[in-house]
TrEMBL record:
GO terms for molecular function: beta-glucosidase activity. One of its GO terms (cellular component) is cytosol. InterPro entries: GH, GH_1_N_CS, Glyco_hydro_1, Glyco_hydro_1_AS. It holds the Pfam family Glyco_hydro_1. GO terms for biological process: carbohydrate catabolic process. Belongs to the glycosyl hydrolase 1 family. Keywords: Glycosidase, Hydrolase. The active site is at 361 (nucleophile). This is 6-phospho-beta-glucosidase. It comes from Kluyvera genomosp. 2.
C-alpha cells in the first residue's frame, strides 16, 4: 500500500503578519507589511496615529495562541510552520540591542508547541522587514542590510537553539521579481538591475544565515523557500517550449544559487543581455557556497507560457502573468487547480537538486458559508487537499524524498495577496470579516475532522 514515511511531518503553515496582530505591542516596530494594508501588491501607506488596518489585529494569534495550538494538536499536528516578526526582535532593524519582550513572546509560543510535541518550522523573514530599514537605508538595495539580517538571524538562533531545529530563510524568495516592496523593500517601478542587486544581497544574507545556523544550532537544518511557479508550454511549438524553459529558470535560479552555491550560466547571460552588472564581491561568492539542507516551497497552481506576445498581453494581471491553461478548472480567485502539477514539480525539484523537499504551503482559498447550526461544509477544500496529497504520495513512490506537508492557513487568516479575510483557507473558522467586525471566536469546519483522520492514518484515508 502506498504510504507516507513514518517520520513525515504533518501540519499547517502561517505567517506572523497574517495572524498575530498586536502590530505595535510590546516594542514591536513597523514592518513593510504594516504599511501595505492592501496586500503584497498594494501601495505603501504611511501610518498615522489612530488609523487601522485588518492586519493590525489579524486573528489576534498573539494573545490567543494557546487556544489555537490546542486546536492544532487536536488535529494531530506534529509540525507547525510559523514566522518570527523581525520587527518584534529588532524594531528598526539597526537597533543596538534586541527587544526582550519580542524574544520572550516566541519563547512562550515554542514552549506551548512543545507541550503537544509539535515541531516548529520557523521562517526568518516572511513577506516583511523593518520599515525603518526601507526608509533609512533603501531596503535590500543597500548592502548594509545583509549585516542587519545576519545579526537578527544569529540572535534568534542563539535564543531558540534548544527549541527550534528546523528553519527557513526567506519566504517565497522569488516573489521579489513580482512584488519588489514585499520581497526586497524596493518601490514598484524599480529597474530590473536594482531589483536583481537587492536580490543578490538577499541571497548572500540567506547563505550567511545558513552558515550561522550550522554553527549555532546543534542538529539544526535550514532550508530555502520558493514560490513553486511551475509553468507549461501552451503549445508544442519549439518557441513555446524554450520560452517555458526560460520562465521556469527565472524562479529556479533562486534555488540554483541556494542549493548549488553559485550563479548559473543562464542567469549570467540574462544579466549580460540586459546590460546589468551586479556588484558581487569575492566575499559574496565565498558566502554563497553555504548551501541549504533542504528545499521548501509553496504550490497553489500552474500556468502556461507562450512566445505569442498577443496572448501574453491578455494574461497581464493574472497571477504572475500566467496564461490560463484551457484544460484546468479555477478557484473563485482564478487560481487554476492542478494536483498532478504538484507531482510534476516534486519530481522536477528532486531531479534537479537531490535534496530533501518540504511542501510548506498548499491550500484552497474560498468563501466559506456558515449554516444556521454553525457548521461549515467545506467539501471543496477537502477535495482540493485530498487530490494534492494523493499526488504528493505518488511522488514519494517515484523516489522523491519528501519531509512533510504543512497546509497553508490551518486557521483562517488575512490573505497575503489582497489582505482580506473573506478568502479563507483554514480548517478552523475565525469569526472576523473584511470590515473588521466579528467576535474572533474559533470553530471547526468539516475539513478539521477530515485532516485529523488523514494525519491519524498517515495518509491511508486519502481517496485516490
Amino acid at each position: 500500500m502506498k504510504t507516507f514515511p513514518q517520520t513525515f511531518l504533518w501540519g499547517g503553515a502561517t505567517a506572523a503578519n497574517q495572524i498575530e496582530g498586536a502590530y505595535l505591542e510590546e516594542g514591536k516596530g513597523l514592518s513593510t507589511s504594516d504599511v501595505q494594508p492592501h496586500g503584497v501588491f498594494g501601495e505603501v501607506v504611511e501610518r498615522v496615529e489612530g488609523d487601522s488596518a485588518l492586519k493590525d489585529v489579524a486573528i489576534d494569534f498573539y494573545h490567543r495562541y494557546p487556544e489555537d495550538i490546542a486546536l492544532f494538536a487536536e488535529m494531530g499536528f506534529n509540525c507547525l510552520r510559523v514566522s518570527i516578526a523581525w520587527t518584534r526582535i529588532y524594531p528598526n532593524g539597526d537597533d543596538a540591542q534586541p527587544n526582550e519582550a519580542g524574544l520572550a513572546f516566541y519563547d512562550k509560543l515554542f514552549d506551548e508547541m512543545a507541550k503537544y510535541n509539535i515541531t516548529p518550522l520557523v521562517t526568518l523573514s516572511h513577506y516583511e522587514m523593518p520599515w525603518a530599514l526601507v526608509k533609512n537605508y533603501g531596503g535590500w538595495g543597500n548592502r548594509q542590510v545583509i549585516g542587519f539580517f545576519e545579526r537578527y538571524a544569529r540572535t534568534v538562533f542563539e535564543r531558540y537553539k534548544g527549541k527550534v531545529k528546523l528553519w527557513l530563510t526567506f519566504n517565497e524568495i522569488n516573489m521579489s521579481l513580482h512584488a519588489p516592496m514585499t520581497g526586497v523593500g524596493l518601490p514598484t517601478g524599480s529597474s530590473k538591475g536594482e531589483v536583481y542587486q537587492a536580490i543578490h544581497h538577499q541571497l548572500v544574507a540567506s547563505a550567511l544565515a545558513v552558515k550561522a545556523c550550522h554553527e549555532i544550532v546543534l542538529e539544526g537544518k535550514i532550508g530555502n523557500m520558493l514560490l513553486g511557479g511551475l509553468v507549461y508550454p501552451l503549445s508544442c511549438k519549439p518557441e513555446d517550449v524554450f520560452k517555458t524553459l526560460q520562465e521556469n529558470r527565472s524562479w529556479m535560479f533562486f534555488g540554483d544559487v541556494q542549493c548549488r552555491g553559485a550563479y548559473p550560466g543562464y542567469m549570467l547571460r540574462e544579466l549580460r543581455d540586459s546590460g546589468i552588472t551586479l556588484a558581487i564581491t569575492d566575499a559574496d561568492r565565498e558566502a554563497l557556497r553555504s548551501t541549504v539542507d533542504f528545499i521548501s516551497f509553496s504550490y497553489y497552481m500552474t500556468g502556461c507560457v507562450t512566445a505569442d506576445e498577443a496572448l501574453n498581453q491578455k494574461a497581464r494581471g493574472n497571477i504572475l502573468n500566467m496564461v490560463p491553461n484551457p484544460h484546468l478548472a479555477s478557484s473563485e480567485w482564478g487560481w487554476q487547480i492542478d494536483p498532478l502539477g504538484l507531482r510534476t514539480l516534486l519530481n522536477v525539484l528532486w531531479d534537479r537538486y537531490q535534496k530533501p523537499l518540504f511542501i510548506v504551503e498548499n491550500g484552497l482559498g474560498a468563501k466559506d458559508s456558515v449554516d444556521a447550526d454553525g457548521s461549515i461544509h467545506d467539501d471543496y477544500r477537502i477535495s482540493y487537499l485530498n487530490d494534492h496529497l494523493v499526488q504528493a504520495r505518488e511522488a514519494i513512490e517515484d523516489g522523491v524524498e519528501l519531509m512533510g506537508f504543512t497546509s497553508w492557513g490551518p486557521i483562517d487568516l488575512v490573505s497575503a495577496s489582497k489582505a482580506e479575510i473573506s478568502k479563507r483557507y483554514g480548517f478552523i473558522y475565525v469569526d472576523r470579516h473584511d470590515d473588521g467586525t466579528g467576535t474572533l471566536a474559533r470553530s471547526k469546519k468539516k475539513s478539521f475532522g477530515w485532516y485529523k483522520e488523514v494525519i491519524a492514518t498517515n495518509g491511508a484515508s486519502l481517496k485516490a
